[in-house]
Design brief:
Layout (H helix, E strand, L loop, with lengths): L3 E6 L5 E7 L9 H5 L8 E3 L7 H9 L3 E3 L14 H4 L3 H11 L2 H5 L5 H17 L1
Parallel strand pairs: 3-4
Antiparallel strand pairs: 1-2
Length: 130
Amino acid sequence: MTTKVHAVTDGLGNPLRFLLSSGNCNDICVAQALLEPFDLNGKLILADKGYDSDKFVRWLEERGGIAVIPSRIIAKHPRKTDWHTYKERHLVENLFLKLKNKRRFATRYEKKALYFHAVVCLASILVWLL
């Protein structure tokens, strides 16, 4: 019941990839696996503070990506963040709002992760079509 859905979207807010994780897992645990199949060269990677990790940002920069991730408040050496670009992260939040309009996604009736992943895929297909 506490399954987390991690998503990658394009510049228009359309879903590209999903991963599921357990509710007690941090966001950063699946971040690298989520972006692994994509060519990040010259791409902006917008993420919230849950994905703030020096190791992850270094990995993004090695692959050519540009990290637009604000530092946590407790960071010893905070990074500079382009806040005008960071505002575009609302597209991911809007995707989850669209997905939650689908009752099956919002109520999470499925007990197995495989079945819930299928529901996420079907809901994302509807987002692409509508």
